[in-house]
Amino acid sequence: MVEVRYATAPDQVPGMTTDRLRSRFLAEDLFVPGEIRLVYSHEDRIVIGGAAPGGAPLDLPCPDEFRAEYFLERRELGVVNLGEPGAVTVDGEEYALGNKECVYVGMGSRAVSFSGGPFYLVSTPAHAGHPTVSAGLADAEPVRLGSQEGSNDRTIHKYIHAKGIQSCQLVLGVTVLAPGSMWNTMPCHTHERRTEVYLYFDVPQDDRVVHLMGRPDETRNLIIADRQAVISPPWSVHCGFGTRNYAFVWAMGGENQAYEDIEQVAIGEMR
Ligand SMILES: O=C(O)C(=O)C[C@H](O)C(=O)CO
Ligand SMILES: [Zn+2]
């Protein structure tokens, strides 16, 4: 149920085969009907997961790896609905979630269950309880970036961040590309103080996203299908282009919550 991924140093990347790269950084099978699947990354101890209720509601388990009484004893959780209307129930209170809507579940919440969806989960360690809050795309400070000419016309919706839903360290949002736009996060960046995870979705079955990762001057690519997630350590760029437009959930954890605290990469630095 939980797969543990240890952290990777940037100097390990040049010798890696495609399979090695994928097994380290890509989570390919998070969404299996009737299951909750989790990946525990040692990069900032971010846990990502998929909850795909196959009819009956699914309860969030507490993995042995947490050495905790319940999942959110020392953690917080962001949930995004990737599919059909559904609900997340937290200690008896139901939060109805439509497609691309989000609920933040604070530390100390004991019983979490899912129906409908499927739902994408991101959890980071926490030190204080913040209120559980749900939000829709319109609540999430939509910011339009890029252009049609640059094939990167996209809207960034920030859900959990310093000026939005409050959390201990989790930062999370959804970016939606306009029809005809394929590039995300270009020009790209790194952020030495935070790990980021991208979960690509709304990618049709016969399409793919080519995700670029690695040090800016030594990039590698991962060919990513629908509902697959890529772990981006602090030293790695994270950007990509699709064979058509798509959406993705981005989530971060680490030293700070400052979205603007990034190292911008000039296109000429990239190799
Ligand atoms: O399309 C984009 O650009 C993004 O969504 C960028 C992410 O939000 C990100 O990388 C935050 O650090
Ligand atoms: Zn980033």
Automatic annotation (TrEMBL):
Pfam families the record matches: KduI
Keyword field contains Isomerase: yes
Cofactor note: Binds 1 zinc ion per subunit.
InterPro entries associated with the record: KduI (IPR007045), KduI/IolB_isomerase (IPR021120), KduI_N (IPR027449), RmlC-like_jellyroll (IPR014710), RmlC_Cupin_sf (IPR011051)
Domain of life according to the entry: Bacteria
Keyword Metal-binding: yes
Cofactor(s) listed in the protein's UniProt record: Zn(2+)
Gene3D superfamilies cross-referenced by the UniProt entry: Jelly Rolls (2.60.120.10), pectin degrading enzyme 5-keto 4- deoxyuronate isomerase, domain 1 (2.60.120.520)
Binding site for Zn(2+): H189, H191, E196, H238
Key words of the record: Isomerase, Metal-binding, Zinc
Catalytic activity: 5-dehydro-4-deoxy-D-glucuronate = 3-deoxy-D-glycero-2,5-hexodiulosonate
Pathway assigned in UniProt: Glycan metabolism; pectin degradation; 2-dehydro-3-deoxy-D-gluconate from pectin: step 4/5
E.C. no: 5.3.1.17
Class of the enzyme per the UniProt entry, highest EC level: isomerase
GO molecular function: 4-deoxy-L-threo-5-hexosulose-uronate ketol-isomerase activity
NCBIfam families recorded: PRK00924.1
Primary role: Catalyzes the isomerization of 5-dehydro-4-deoxy-D-glucuronate to 3-deoxy-D-glycero-2,5-hexodiulosonate.
Family (UniProt): Belongs to the KduI family.
Protein name (Swiss-Prot/TrEMBL): 4-deoxy-L-threo-5-hexosulose-uronate ketol-isomerase
Organism of provenance: Sphaerisporangium dianthi
